Amino acid sequence: MTGVPAGTVAARLAELGITLPRVAAPVAAYVPAVRSGRYVHTSGQLPFVDGALLATGKVGDGEGLVAPADAAGLARVCALNALAAVHDVVGNLDDVVRVVKVVGFVASDPSFTGQPGVVNGASTVLGEIFGEAGVHARSAVGVAVLPLDAPVEVELVVELAD
């Protein structure tokens, strides 16, 4: 597998109207991403924009819950925060040859079972940005609560060119 042509990811981000955010500051004792050989593993990323959490609460269908479609948008934000963390470690997203794995956690109302649809928000944006190299293995997990009462958290593993 080869890397994408130089400048391709930046051009694709511009075409999609996406500006990578600044790397979100950790909320505990960890770093946003770590490179190990040809792989970068991100920490779980919350839906922060400019240091503020976009929403809180459980995801589900009903009053007082974060709607699944809104949660999918938050998962997209999480994925972009994860890409920012990758960029911070490697300096150039053109070095990414494959998005290997996405893990999405959804703070779910007990009756909610649509976690895969929520995490599609992350998967879709990665496909839009990286094309075939953005197709990945994935887990979408419902949990009782996430840090800071965030509705969604996403982590990535990406493979880099030699």
TrEMBL record:
InterPro entries: Endoribo_LPSP/chorism_mut-like, RutC-like_sf
Pfam family, one: YjgF_endoribonc
Top-rank lineage group of the source organism: Bacteria
Gene3D superfamilies named among the record's database cross-references: RutC-like
Endoribonuclease L-PSP/chorismate mutase-like domain span: 11-160
Name under which the protein is recorded: RidA family protein
